[in-house]
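Researcher: Predict the fold of eEF1A lysine and N-terminal methyltransferase.
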Amino acid sequence: MELLPRSPGEFGSARYWDRFFRQRGQRPFEWYGAFPELCPVLHKYVRPRDKVLVVGCGNSELSEQMYDVGMCEDIVNIDISDAVIRQMQERSGSTRPKMSYLLMDMLQMDFPDAHFQVVLDKGTLDALLTDEEEATLAKVDQMFAEISRVLQVGGRYLCVSLAQAHVLKKAVEYFSREGWVVRVHQVASSGDKQQFVLPVFVYVMTKFRKIPGSAPQILEICPEEQDKPMRMESAERLVAAVKDRQDYALLCSQISKTPCREQVSLDLCDKESGKPRYTLHVVDSPSVKPSRDNHFAIFIIPQGRETEWLFGTEEGRRQLAASAGFGRLVTVALHREQHYEGMASIQAELSGKVMELAPPGLPVRQQVPFLSVGGDIGVRTVRHNATSPLSGEYVVEDVKGDGTCYFRRLIFLRNRNVVQSEARLRAATPLPGQKKRRKDKKKPSLAEPPGAIDKSYLCCEHHKAMVAGLCLLGGPDALPGKLAVLVVGLGGGSLPLFVHDYFSEARVAVVEIDPSMLEVATQWFGFSQGHRMQVHISDGLDYVTKLAAEAPAQYDAVMFDVDSKDLTVGMSCPPPAFVEKPFLQKVKTILKPEGVFVLNLVCRDARLKESVLATLRDVFPLLYARRIQGEVNEILFCQPGPEGWRDPTELGERARALEGALRQPGRLWDSSYVLADMLQAVQIL
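Model: Structure tokens for eEF1A lysine and N-terminal methyltransferase follow.
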């Protein structure tokens, strides 16, 4: 401990370093970065005939090792400590005749201009730039100026560093401003995480003649796992990229020593584009008793299924890990913008990286299994992608679900893990004259034309609950008669389509603010308008306000299934303005006295949710709630009159009567959709 300075400023003091090396003796002192780790990077930029200057050499073995392996022999080492220079002259003078050690201050060097092809600095800049005080920064500027002076054009300044943000930013800004090319290499780790956690970097600054005017900056980073540099658009982005790698190293070190109390999430990005390729979640199961074969496993989530509760929520992943029976499970989600050859190629690509996330106590050379559903990576085909001024970038994709079912989905990429709309696809039917496939032939793939939309099936559980809420309509002849229904929020059109098709005399009005969604619903989800189905392109707030003033009490049911574009609010459905009291009173105005208002509420903020419920109670005398298992969605049924179906038994009977009326001969109906089941969990608030 006595070797440490009393203050960071002493790192620049010759007296401190003389005392340091006298007390340490002959033992070499390496700040960080052993020669085997640095060698691959040094070999790229140091040639055998180069004249090399090592600034702040200390008693590191780096110069000796470079000399001994034949990398370079014409090496000049300088340091401000007389004690260490004499020590190194004694140690290397007779065995390495072409290498010299000189007592010299790097801030005032005696060498002529353009004397060296390489200047090498291992930890010296880090030791000097301990703070951002004016005096310290002035010394660093002087150091950089001297290095620039003694380097030839085309020469390289190689700086081995831990890349603290202020150190890296200072070096990058200084040399890029001078017109130099700046490249940062991450040094491959030796794997000894116990010795040193932080990754080591080498800044490579290549000297070019400064071009008058504003020449473009060339800033690059080379991660340890690849040779090809990635171009960075700014110094800030380069510093951020380095910090990402430092954070990852710290994370790996932490979870390699102790179990994760909370699930850890991280993205692994594509080397070429820099876009996320895999999203990983690290899930530990303390309840699993460890044995040799159940420490660690990787679970590949099939494409298109990452939004399912089991894979897309913390609780679901926790359940998955426990049922898989492994102490640590890493789930891997595949991104729609990326291409994957198959399970074998994914395993080859991920094997090295996921082992950095291994749990403590993993036996040496332990085989780590890769798991999945059905042993494959699933199927995903993007059918359409575009950008809407209102909804942002979105995609329509076909995915394979559990078993043999295929589904079409609408995804807003600003919230890419949420399915905005979903519809089941029917199996493709042969055209006239086509033969049916033999059973032994290859199964159809999504590269072939898909079947039609299955309008008899509601994929979303909250849509099923919303339709079931129609059972609350009073009067024996209310269903299935000439219902007037207003739906705010079109999406893919599944909800209004279902109401239109199964209530044969119902008139459905849909309000959608984004005209792009009408195009998507029509082209990709089988939606169409007619005399009983009309879409109005308008803001739902404006449309309801206008109706309340001009045509009150005209709807049997009003349904809100509209998302919020503001992701900063703890309520993603509906937008907050849709549940403010003045607007809810307008909704009540357009309902018939015995009508029902059905609201899809998605709110993660408990305090905000309670405020919404309180406002609804103020406006509507009767309020029912149906929570959707495994989802955040909660369906609220609101009635304007005090008379209602308060008895759950009556609600169940009403649901069965409605379902019986809808199951007409020759009409498609999915057998898993039971209205009574939907209403049996309704709570009266």
